[in-house]
C-alpha cells in the first residue's frame, strides 16, 4: 500500500504505518456506508442573494510583494501576535 501511495517508509516503521493506514481506510469505509440522518434541531438555514459587491482596499497596508532579490514579502496581520 505504501508503494501505491508513493511513500518511503523506513523498515522499522512499516508495521506502525500499516496500522495507521488500515485505520484510515476503515474510517473511509464507514463514511462511504453512512446513509445520512436527520438534521439536528436548530434554526433553518437561510441563503443570501448571490450578488457581486464592490470591494475596497481602504485601510490595507500597501506593500511591494516581491523585493529586488525575488523574495516574497507578506504584510503583518493587524492584531496578530
Spell out the key features of this protein.
0% strand; mainly alpha; 81 residues; 25% helix; single chain; flat
Q: Would you mind describing this structure in some detail?
A:
By secondary structure, the chain is mainly alpha-helical. It is 25% helix and 0% strand. The chain starts with 13 loop residues before the first helix and ends in a 48-residue tail after the last helix. The longest helix has 20 residues, at 14-33.
Largest sheet: none
Mean pLDDT over all positions? 80
Structural class, from secondary structure content?
A: mainly alpha
Task: Please mark out the parts with pLDDT under 50 across 5 or more consecutive residues, or reply none.
Answer: none
Distance between the termini: 42 Å
Quaternary state, please? single chain
Give the percentage of residues in beta strands.
Answer: under 5%
How much helix, percentage-wise, in residues?
A: 10-25%
Per DSSP E runs of 2 or more residues, the count of β-strands stands at 0
Number of helices: 1
Return Rg in Å.
Answer: 25 Å
**Form type:** flat
Return the string of H and E elements: H
How are the elements arranged and paired?
Layout: H1 14-33
Task: Briefly say what this structure is.
By secondary structure, the chain is mainly alpha-helical. The chain has one helix and no strands.
Amino acid at each position: 500500500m505504501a508503494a501505491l501511495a508513493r511513500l518511503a517508509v523506513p523498515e522499522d516503521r512499516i508495521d506502525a504505518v500499516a496500522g495507521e493506514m488500515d485505520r484510515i481506510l476503515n474510517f473511509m469505509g464507514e463514511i462511504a456506508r453512512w446513509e445520512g440522518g436527520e438534521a439536528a434541531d436548530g434554526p433553518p438555514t437561510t441563503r443570501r442573494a448571490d450578488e457581486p459587491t464592490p470591494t475596497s482596499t481602504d485601510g490595507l497596508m500597501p506593500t511591494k510583494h516581491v523585493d529586488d532579490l525575488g523574495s516574497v514579502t507578506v504584510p503583518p496581520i493587524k492584531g496578530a501576535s
